[in-house]
Every structure is written in structure tokens, then in C-alpha cells.
Specification:
It is an enzyme of class 4 (lyase). The chain has helices at residues 3-16, 46-49, 74-84, 106-115, 120-128, 133-137, 143-155; strands spanning 33-38, 58-63, 90-96, 166-171, 178-182. Strands 2-1-3-4-5 form a five-stranded mixed beta sheet, covered by helices on one side. The chain is of the alpha/beta class. Bound molecules: zinc ion.
């Protein structure tokens, strides 16, 4: 049995047993917030449960490092669509301690790519095409600073409504304890 076999098999039973009934809700978040956090395995459920959110309460966007890598990329688009089309009225950007994107060893990632068949000349071609591979892959040094930088990016985005509060948090992936980095209500302009 592969992972996919397990998933499909479990799913048939899940639907047959009507287990979905406990999850049914609308696409408008009842807590009117969109949360950007990390794809870390320890946060699969903890990122919602430690904050008191359940299915239907929030929009949640996850990526490696809870980071907006481009002002016109998919993550920023998700935040904007959450605000302008899906009923969110606040944003929470939540990094976490011990994040895999903190001090990510880019050289090691590149070496792994090469050992798995990515050719050196492909990397050179990309570099010559103006793609900075190191910059593309690199994470951050300090999670608090990363949360603050992402808040600034959102808040200064030309398409952002500055009356929307953007809060910054850092979560402990072991205990779920939150550290407040930015109270977004302090910064909004009406
Ligand atoms: Zn992480």
C-alpha cells in the first residue's frame, strides 16, 4: 500500500461514514481573519488549535517559513483575496521557533539537488537568466525579524487597505505558546 492508496482508501470510508458532517461550514471565515503561517509538520493542527480556531473560523495560508517571497506572488494574492473577496477583516502573520527556514543551508540544498540529478549547467543557465538561486532558496536569520518584515511588506503593499490590522505572532511548536510581535490595532489608519 502506498501513501496515496492509504489516502484514497481512508477517504472512501470517511465519506461513506459521513464523517464530513462535523466539518461543514461556509467559505466566509466566522472569525473574519486570514492567517499566514508555516507548513511545519508540528503546526498541522497546532497552528489552529493553540489559537482557538476551528474549521470555518479563519482562512489559512501556509508555506515554508510563513514568508511572502514576492509582493505579487501567490501568498500575497491569497491575503488580498482573503480581505477583498472572502470576508476577512484582519491578518495574522505567525512564524514559529525552530523553523526549518531559519538559517537554511542553501549550499546543502543545492548539493542535494545535484545529487538527485539537477545538472550544474542548469543552475548556471538559471543564474545567467537572472534568477538568483541563493536568494530564491534562502530563509531568514531571525524569526521575529522575519515576521516584522512580512508585516511591513503587507502594510506597504500598494493594493493593501491600511485600515486592516496586521498582527504578528511567533508560536512555540512544542507548547503552542504565542509571543506577540506586533499588535496590528496599534498601526491601522481609519
Ligand atoms: Zn517553519
Amino acid at each position: 500500500m502506498t501513501l496515496l492508496d492509504d489516502v484514497l482508501s481512508y477517504n472512501r470510508q470517511f465519506v461513506a461514514d459521513k464523517d464530513y458532517e462535523g466539518f461543514q461550514t461556509s467559505k466566509v471565515p466566522s472569525m473574519k481573519a486570514v492567517v499566514l503561517t508555516c507548513m511545519d509538520t508540528r503546526l498541522v493542527e497546532l497552528s489552529s488549535k493553540a489559537l482557538g480556531f476551528k474549521n470555518g473560523d479563519i482562512k489559512i495560508v501556509k508555506n515554508a517559513g510563513a514568508t511572502i517571497t514576492h509582493p505579487y506572488g501567490a501568498t500575497m494574492r491569497s491575503l488580498l483575496v482573503g480581505i477583498y473577496a472572502l470576508g476577512a477583516e484582519e491578518i495574522i502573520i505567525m512564524g514559529h521557533k525552530d523553523c526549518g527556514m531559519g538559517n537554511l543551508d542553501v549550499e546543502s540544498v543545492l548539493n542535494t539537488m545535484k545529487s538527485r540529478g539537477v545538472k550544474e549547467e542548469v543552475l548556471h543557465t538559471l543564474e545567467h537568466s537572472g534568477i538568483d538561486i541563493h536568494h530564491f532558496l534562502e530563509g531568514f536569520k531571525d524569526v521575529r525579524e522575519n515576521v516584522s518584515n512580512n508585516i511591513d511588506l503587507v502594510y506597504n503593499h500598494p493594493l493593501f487597505d491600511k485600515s486592516v490590522p496586521v498582527h504578528g505572532l511567533v508560536i512555540d511548536p512544542n507548547t503552542g505558546e504565542l509571543e506577540l510581535i506586533q499588535n496590528g490595532y496599534d498601526k491601522v489608519t481609519q
